[in-house]
Specification:
Length: 119
């Protein structure tokens, strides 16, 4: 297969390219990190996410808003003692979206690991 012959790629692999199944809302690094960390617990503290993902408050807040607006997480504000807290939890839709993203990534890896004829 060469770059000059786009039909050659169709001969090597059948079906749509796995990257077509990636969800831009989920696939972004920080948002994928939020979803995977939230998947590991009932709810996750904002500060923990900020530390684990090495992002600023504003940056994390923006990504949480995108995920919340998409119905993939819930954001709950409250207090732990006298300290204000923000907790993030994965929704059922978020769990399904994460699962679909992981399936697409696995399909991409399988495609890349499949030996091509003539190599």
């Amino acid at each position: 297969m060469t770059v000059d012959d786009p039909t050659a790629a169709q001969d090597d692999q059948e079906g749509p390219h796995p990257t077509r199944a990636l969800d831009d809302t989920v696939h972004q690094r920080v948002r994928l990190g939020v979803l995977t960390i939230a998947h590991e617990a009932d709810r996750v503290d904002f500060g923990f996410l900020k530390e684990q993902l090495a992002v600023t408050d504003g940056n994390l807040s923006r990504h949480l808003r995108v995920l919340e607006d998409s119905g993939l997480i819930t954001v709950e504000k409250g207090y732990a003692g006298r300290r204000p807290r923000t907790w993030v939890a994965l929704t059922r839709e978020g769990a399904h979206a994460l699962d679909a993203e992981l399936r697409a990534l696995r399909a991409l890896v399988r495609r890349l690991e499949t030996p091509r004829d003539g190599t």
